[in-house]
Amino acid sequence: xxxxxxxxxxxxxxxxxxxYLAECIDTGWISSEGPFVRRLEDGMAALTGRRHGIAxxxxxxxxxxxxxxxxxxxxxxxxLPTFTxxxxxxxxxxxxxxxxxxxxxxxxWCMDVGQVEARITSRTRAIMAVHIYGLPVDMDPLxxxxxxxxxxLIEDAAEAHGLLYRRRPCGSFGQISVFSFYPNKHVTTGExxxxxxxxxxxxxxxxxxxxxxxxxxxxxxxxxxxWNLRMSNLQAAVGVAQLERLQExxxxxxxxxxxxxxxxxxxxxxxLPMPTTNYAENVYWVFGVVLNKDVPFDAEHFxxxxxxxxxxxxxxxxxxxxxxxxxxxxxxxxxxxxxxERLGRRGLYLPSGLALTDPQIDxxxxxxxxxxx
Length: 373
Ligand SMILES: Cc1ncc(COP(=O)(O)O)c(C=O)c1O
Fold this sequence. Notes:
With 373 residues, the chain is α/β, with parallel strands linked by helices. Helix content is 36%, strand content 14%. The two termini are 20 Å apart. The relative contact order is 0.18. Residues 58-60, 84-85, 87, 130, 156, 158-159, 180, 182, 193 line the site of pyridoxal-5'-phosphate.
């Protein structure tokens, strides 16, 4: 992309970020022992109505920690969508358990909850619910299945800060729920993640796993293997400033989504994100578009055309059942999930960062029209 290109994401760091960072430097509190870490943990717990927040280094680590804390391991199965980021499947595989996949709903792109029950076996221990691109997965049926079959619910709300499902915050549903604070999220810490839960034992396990499982009395004697997943006070300082403006960030995203949607109404070649479902309003974490059948090229070529026109994009997720690394482990042999396959091949997302301006949106829209010609 050349000069003046519109990046796919640019964060908004115009609140108290600079002031709080200066506070870290002035006080010398830069490690994970500093006070912003607890403030961010408490803030995310309050946002989701949970008792505990445990800050970690990123959303992928949060998932890994969650799966371990629940004691999921060899012989266990976890049901998750095939259309998601590798972090979800990786957390299951690294714990020695088996990921079991479900295709997406063609309209919301989240897991098709109608397919989940058929995939439950005597080995199933958990359902991993993933909220995708700004719409929540339909939680009520999943909660009911977890209750009926006595399964854990792991909620991946990595993209879902400030998103509501039937007026209840995403991140409030799982035995364990996780968030990411990567710079394209509604709350960023540069790199970072958060685990939230109501269960004091799970919270304690996650705290211990995050901190190498040091023991209180005998610090360097270990009964368990953990990781160093601690978030620094510098990162948390940025996160606290971001969280203060979450509502404003969500409103900006709503406006961005509404503007793109309105501008693309007359473009029949594109499937757009659903603005609402009967359980949620889209917060457009990113604005994905999927090429309809009539378009004679795939998303990869579409992205090249848009790049030439100065517009940054990212592909949509590539399904888990088509990941070479997982297939080589003998997983998902001959599985087909046509909706996710179509999304992977025909979809991309457009510039969607919080710093995106209306004139930039107009430029993107004009470029998309041109690229489809
Ligand atoms: C659904 C989902 N889960 C997990 C993650 C992983 O988060 P991180 O990038 O912080 O490791 C992401 C990242 O965007 C995500 O979209």
